[in-house]
Amino acid sequence: MENSIIQKYNVPGPRYTSYPTVPYWEEDSFTTEQWKETMLRAFNDSNTTEGISLYIHLPFCESMCTFCGCNKRITRRHEVEEPYIAAVLKEWKLYCDLLPERPRIKELHLGGGTPTFFSPENLDWLINGILEHAEKAPNYEFSFEGHPNNTTRVQLQKLYDLGFRRVSFGVQDYNERVQIAINRIQPFHNVAKVTFWAKEIGYTSISHDLVFGLPFQTMANITDTIEKTKSLNPDRISFYSYAHVPWIKGNGQRGFDESNLPKDEEKRFLYEEGKNLLAKKEFHEIGMDHFALETDSMHEAFKTGRLHRNFMGYSASKTQLMIGLGVSSISDSWYSFAQNEKNIEAYYRRIEKNELPIFRGHLLTDEDLIIRKHILNLMCCFETSWESEELYFDEIPDILINLHEMENDGLLEIREKSIIVTEKGKAFVRNICMAFDLRLKRKAPGTKLFSMTI
């Protein structure tokens, strides 16, 4: 890809797990009571049809990975498990007491942190505690993130017995120098072991998460990592750009010098060549940074237009209501967002007072809802349209004028009432979404907020 194109579009930009993005939430006009109202509205609209989603944040890790931007608490003291699960289950009970009927869970995801920090017995306690007040919806999908170094066969079997069929293993890169720099020493043997265990137990969708743009990373590293990954034949691969945001995450991302990071065209080369290699290995691109075999449910969802994106990432189905449990979790009623306390001690204090531990949120305006749909279309389908009157808004002509340069650069096609992202443009879908982001346009950030788009 031309270096001039890369340099032109390599700017700070959101990843659009939500719209509006968190820095543009109108927190001053948001209240927990308003969140409850929209949550109940979404529940009543969807519980008997599609069900709801649950995201549970399990924040503990035994060591700090310096590439990680997640909310986590580093500790080797496993006695933290029980009080945390007790608090999460109490939070869930607070929600269930608000609901007019038993919720039907369509999706449940355990994220972190390191979910496999928790013992099989405590994972059993957590999931059975959730299901004590809920039903599983038809065709439910339970998933979790596993650390290859500490995921045991007993944990995999326990979660499978509880209904989990999807697992994502964090791989990043197999090169030892890169692993030392990001403090994630993880031999190929460990990843192979947990992958084979998961296959033997019966998991139907196994994903490996790879990262490009890490310190000291070269194309030879990327090639070796993808070759090793293919030898294990996962169903899906996430191939993420490393988001270097030390101004947000503090010292956690300063375990190496910034001069050690591949930049601009060097970093984009890692992505383009890695993407080409994945295609040769029969992994098809589905949404931003995600690839899947034709046999995986994510691929089918992409082909049929059912792929969805939210704070849990991409999923093969959509629910209107997603409730986030645990420290820093974000909930989504479609009409509003609500985020829990980010500090564990503050989270515990709120739970002890029988309060939903929400500390900020945003009520979506009518304009937000329209823009959100366009950004979801672009992120999930690589196209969007305003054929339908409810998806038209007054700024579309101005947006199209701004998109003409991207069209001239071959990144998209502008049609009468739609735009289509080209194959070349898929790598710049974040930039294309930014053209629709009216809040970003009206108030450009005065400080660093987002990672670079490339």
Count of alpha/pi helices = 16
Termini separation comes to 12 Å
Judged by helices, strands and strand pairing, the structural class is alpha/beta
**Major pleated sheet:** 9 strands, mixed
| Percent in strands | 15-25%
Q: Round the Cα radius of gyration to an integer and report it.
A: 21 Å
Q: Approximately how much helix is present in the residues?
A: 25-40%
What general form does the structure show?
globular
Low-confidence spans: none
Number of extended strands: 19
Biggest β-sheet: strands ordered side by side in the sheet: 9-10-8-7-6-5-4-1-13
Mean pLDDT: 92
Structure description:
The protein has 454 residues and is an alpha/beta fold. The protein has 16 helices and 19 strands. The protein has helices at 3-9, 32-46, 81-98, 120-131, 153-161, 176-181, 188-201, 219-232, 246-249, 264-280, 297-303, 344-352, 366-381, 396-408, 429-436, 438-442; strands at 52-58, 60-61, 73-74, 104-112, 135-146, 164-172, 205-212, 236-241, 284-285, 290-292, 308-310, 313-315, 322-325, 330-332, 336-340, 358-363, 383-385, 412-414, 418-421. The strands form five sheets. A nine-stranded mixed β-sheet has the order 9-10-8-7-6-5-4-1-13, with helices on both faces. Strands 14-15-16 form a three-stranded antiparallel β-sheet, with helices on one face. Strand 9 and strand 10 (290-292) form a beta hairpin. Helix 3 packs parallel to helix 4 and helix 13 (366-381) packs antiparallel against helix 15 (429-436). The chain starts with a helix and ends in a 12-residue tail after the last helix. The mean pLDDT is 92.
